[in-house]
What does this fold into?
Amino acid sequence: MLNSFKPTWMVESIYQISPEQLKKQNVKAVLADLDNTLIAWDNPEGTQATIQWIETMKKNDIEVIILSNNSKKRVGKIARILKLKFVSRGLKPLTRGFTVALNLLPYKKSEIIMVGDQIVTDIRGANAFGIRSALVKPLLDSDAWNTKFNRFIELKIMNYLIKKNPDMKWRNSLHDPIRK
Ligand SMILES: [Mg+2]
It folds into this structure.
């Protein structure tokens, strides 16, 4: 039960994911959630850490696409600054946005992963779409009001999953996947 919320990896932050780790897992592209994954939700420009991580990915031929449930106006603005392709109003956990993102890439599902901070949208969506996923800790503890309710549900689900799966622990790389 609730396995649809289970990520492939749990990594403290997206910035800890390196091209070497991705290549070892045969990953060619990363679908990245925007708010609280790539950038703090109250920091619309992105930090130096964000810019640097994206640069490192680009240099190593790992494509990054933003897949966000947020509006085209907001996601588009940041995507332009970061020079990334994007899918807005992704409707995660539905698979529609994942399909749109996959169509922007010359890769197979097995070669892309989703990275996000929410199990009810990012991870559940990735599982429904049939791709691997990395759950990251939200960059900021406080959230927009519409995320607060999700967080409450997520805490309940995470507590249940962690009880059932003792190897669900935060790590600082993609090296150890969580056992199925
Ligand atoms: Mg998020």
